[in-house]
Amino acid sequence: MSLIAIAVTAAVVAGMVTAEPAEAMSEAGDHLPSVTSGHRPGPDALYLPPPRAPQLENVGPWQAEPLLISGAHAYRDGEWLYQDFLFDDHGATGVLDPSDPYGVSTNLYSPAAGTFTYPTDEVYRHNAADLVELRITRLDDATALRITLNTLVDPALTAVTIALGDAGSHDWPHGAGASSLAEVFLTTHGGTAELLDAATGEVISPAPTVTVDLERRQLDLRIPDGAWNPGTAAVPVTVGVGLWDVDAGTYLAPQPGPATEDTPGGGSLVGSALVNVGPRLDEPTPFIAGVTMADTAVGARALAPWWRERQQSLQLTAGDLSPFSTTVDFGALGAGGTTDESTLPTSGPMNRIHASRYVAGQGIEPDNVCFAISSTPSTPGTSCHGRYVGQLQPYAMYVPEGEPPADGWGLTLLLHSLSANHNQYLSTNNQVQLGERGEGHIVVTPEGRGPDGFYTGVPEAETFEVWADAARHHTIDTDRVAVSGYSMGGFGTYRLLARWPDLFANGFSVVGAPGTVADQLPSLHNIPLLTWNAAADELVNIGDAEAAHAGLVDAGVAHVYDLFTTADHLTLAGNDEYTPGAEWMGDAEVDRDPSTIRYVLDPTEDSADVVADHAYWLSGLRLADPDAAPTGTIEVHSAAFGNGRRTAEETSPGGGALVGGNAGAITYVERGVTQTDAEATTPADRLEITATNIARVTIDPARAGVTCDAELVIDSDGPLDVVLAGCPGSGIERLDAEDPVALSVLASRRAFEDGTASGATLATTADFADATTGSALASAGPLLLTGPDRLDDRVAAVLAELLEDGADVRLLGGAAALAAQVEDDVRALGFVPRRIAGPTRIETAVAIATTVEQLIGTPDRYLLARAFGTATAPTSAWADAIGASSAAALHGWPILLTDRTTLHAATAGWLDANADDRPISVLGGEAALSAAVAGALPGGSPIARIGGATRDETAALISSELLGVSQSTAGRQLHVHDGWAADGWAWGLAGTSLAATAARPLLPLNADGLAVGSARLLACGVPPATAVVLGDTTELSDTVLQRHLACPVEE
């Protein structure tokens, strides 16, 4: 459980191979695990698209994508960019603050070199001076500079100074306590900016300007050419960030020892008040120092390269920033400027930045302790979020030398130890030897949100975010993926293998143990494991190591167990020699479709962000009785593969010595288990299932090699619901159509095959609004989609099939929605076209509501929905209303539209005239329709908002409140569609006629993640719901459907 220490080496990022520009960012999905059918391997967190990250966005003149490689600089699209390290805001070295968030109680093996600590006032978030990026470009009449910070709550409390030019070395202004080359000093704090002559200290006019963007945490500065014009010169640039003393008008200097509410701590009588400076292109990387827990901790504190701010702390302590002056070629900047990325590292060790979707604030929350070594034992919890709560997170990466193989580099997750951080392995033999083995493997180490996450909760989810981020920047061979780690990282190795076995080819745990997944070791049936443990280990003692080995033996897991007879907990880390382990791991490939699967389901290990209920071709696993036992076990053997089950045998004891490291020869004894090859059998269409405390399992027959008629041989301690996905009786029916028009034809034909349609309604495929509001007419006849220019031939055919001659066909919207040619085509079929339209979609909705009253009768409820989306979220316009279309069609309830923030006059007037005292349901939360809109509705009508946190939660609430269908409704059938795609509205509304005939909810699913509200209605309850899928597999694949059949964990 502890970890490792390291010291400083002369190797620096600048010394790595830099000949070629860094690989452009791609879609991670191209380089992530995939299967032909069934549930995709691993958790949803691995496959989610990157979230919106305001700090990485460009507005105004800025165009270049961020580098996201820390300690690097480059020219992109006429901009010069420097990317700083994250959480390196530790200032100079002074007198220790005993309450330092990076102190010995938390970061014993990853302390900071600087000792600066923030004031205890929450506004600072322990991170208010953490530089993320500096970029510069030239405009027609000014120099533009932009600072991005990791945390920015109150801009008045953070100050930035940028030294520009070379007129000799000068002291920085405002009590910064540092000097560097400078011609001018540009300083900003709050909403003010000033430019000073470095030699005289005089203010230069005209004054620079600054724009503060709190959401993006960016400071956008402009220096008019009249004040300073670099032309096309090569100019030295240095940047420093610190805290600002508002009352004194100077930088806020730290005091020695503890911080107070308004004064930083960890200072000294000398040294700079600045906290984070750059550009730092030569920060030293770690190397192993020490072979025991004690001397390693001492070495870690003395040298402290862990946060890549060792050189920064030395120079700030001396007050000399001259090593950080970096020359910028202003001739390469501006419109038509240069892109030159030759300075970016393309191989070797590096620090990367990724944007996480798991955000709980800004900066650091020191009280977010996931695990503590203390007199009172604690267990890592699945609710763990970790100390680093913001969106931007660091991770370490090693890229092998040379060209990648044709299928890409392999990937190894190398998980860090307790009390360490993501840089634990940077530049070590451990990292390099695992990276350079075989054909080459990218090695990544997530920060894991702090020193003690144990890869549960958010730290577990973020591990897969890091994997996905690596796949966006490099081609990954997803068949060659492995996991390893030291101490806590060894625990994490066991954990990830036991929960996600179909992701990994093998694993290598060093001084680790299974911990809380000890009862899940049978899940490793198809994954070989190498374990190194230390006989004199102070933390993972020999009893823990022997128990782990015994558990693997009992589970029949193929493994090699090496017990190093003279080593303590950190001896192998200090020795830093992993060649035998790297050779054992090799280029092994994942077996995605084994003939025998063993899996232990343990929902207590799940969190709201990561749910492990599937493996290989099994999915949708559900416990029978969680109160009787927290786990369930299942084994399924497919006789279709033509082989029997493998058997396990213990190997004869052996041993040897590990040589070549820093500690000399270290002897070990070796034991283990091998699995014998399965005997060949005659292939048969049969599944043999053994289950304990399992109520339900879904099996993908294609990957299991069987048919829908397979024989099921079941040995279970209770009732077991076995679902063969896609087979009759599986509970899923797909309305397979090539486009929404074809789907509307298919759904309408099924809904009105009894001849009850008195007319029909046509809506355009070009926009959602008319079809949405027209859904209230679907009970009187089919709602059909067609192109805007002419009546689709398929629609013409179904109209002729379902309607009597002379029937009314209602056309929704003006000629821009459905052209006059559509009217002519309807008339030519012998029907009467009747257009319902207003000047805008809102007035058209009002006209449709009037038609509903005339055709169906006075409704007993009205629905109000959002009329427009936004440029950044266009699907938000229809997200909530689609879920109500089935209820609107069933009951004849008009759907009216309005602006998001103001009740439209046309809608308000119609409701005033017609609603009387009948209820009005407002669809969506206040982000969809504001409180002001709800407040402006007629006073005599009961107003009820139906809104969840997401569109699928809203759809689930609509289902319950407007259709009476909830998780406990027996026999419920749901109609599901892709509710996040740009044309998701069309696929959903195309099925409205059919959904309304039996009061079936219309629910959005998310092809890129788990839509919790929809999945809860779909999968939870006894028995689970059946589903009609609106669209073919290109809209909602079988893999997506199987994922949504999982009952989500309640938060």
From TrEMBL:
Molecular functions per Gene Ontology: serine-type peptidase activity
Keyword list, A-Z: Signal
Domain Peptidase S9 prolyl oligopeptidase catalytic residues, every copy: 464-512
Highest taxon of the lineage: Bacteria
Leader peptide range in chain numbering: 1-24
Region (Disordered): 25-52
GO biological process: proteolysis
Protein name: Putative penicillin acylase
Organism per entry: Euzebya pacifica
